Amino acid sequence: MKKILLSAIALTIGTVGFAQVGNIGTVTQTGNDNAGIVTQTGDDNTAAITSDGNRFKNNITKWGSWRTAGASGTMMAEGVTQVGNGNEGTITQAGYVGVTGGSGSAGIGQLGNDNKATITQSEFLVHGWSGSNAAFVDQVGNENESLQNQTGRAGSSYFRQAGDNNYGESQQASQSRTKLEQQGNRNRSVQTQGVGNLQTSDTYQNGDDNIATSNQSGGLYNGSVILQDGDWNTAGVTQMGVSNTGTITQTGNDNFGTISSIGNNHVGAITQTGAMNEAVITQNQ
């Protein structure tokens, strides 16, 4: 059984293609110079692209440089590309009201079964500025889930998850960047960037059952890096202020580390190797 719904208004381009049975693909575009691609191979996959505005480019192949050996090169994300069974990919875009320049781009690539990826990009016109958001996710394995939500302008969010039952989430309010790579099973990462510009959050987890959180809820020029290699590790970085830097590196199992920086120009670093280590850094004003 095949179902296709394609709606194009005013110079939009939409392409939907599938193979096998039980797949559903929807492309709905309102505005000018939009492009969307849905490609599905397998059974019972669901894909949707909704673009309301101008110059949303969802036909881009994203190149990435990743820590995982052999993972450098092209991400699978081009529009919504799904290979396997029971995957669900959704891209929703709205913005650029009255703005003729700028663009938004998004891509979802999923290889495996029962993966779910959601990208939402909205409200790109902030304080009279125009800019472009970019979000890409590449998931290889089964039952992985990713959520990327971008409001504001000029945000970028790049995810790669390889394994099973991993969860990645990014919430961005303005001109900042998140990058997540998870290799293994049942890992969880949440990255939050509130109103503020030029913040960066990089998380890399290799192993099983690791948890990482990065909260940059307000400020400028904050940077967070979390590197975890092993199992059952937990790391968290919280930054509110200007020009704070936090780095957590944990190698081994059952380690715990947190950095909280409130104020300006703080530097916090935790490095732990072994098992069942615990470190806490608190910096105020």
Automatic annotation (TrEMBL):
<comment type="similarity">
    <text>Belongs to the CsgA/CsgB family.</text>
</comment>
<feature type="compositionally biased region" description="Polar residues">
    <location>
        <begin position="144"/>
        <end position="154"/>
    </location>
</feature>
<feature type="compositionally biased region" description="Polar residues">
    <location>
        <begin position="163"/>
        <end position="216"/>
    </location>
</feature>
<keyword id="KW-0732">Signal</keyword>
<feature type="region of interest" description="Disordered">
    <location>
        <begin position="144"/>
        <end position="216"/>
    </location>
</feature>
<feature type="signal peptide">
    <location>
        <begin position="1"/>
        <end position="19"/>
    </location>
</feature>
<dbReference type="InterPro" id="IPR009742">
    <property type="entry name" value="Curlin_rpt"/>
</dbReference>
<dbReference type="GO" id="GO:0007155">
    <property type="term" value="P:cell adhesion"/>
</dbReference>
<dbReference type="GO" id="GO:0009289">
    <property type="term" value="C:pilus"/>
</dbReference>
<protein>
    <submittedName>
        <fullName>Curlin associated repeat-containing protein</fullName>
    </submittedName>
</protein>
<dbReference type="Pfam" id="PF07012">
    <property type="entry name" value="Curlin_rpt"/>
</dbReference>
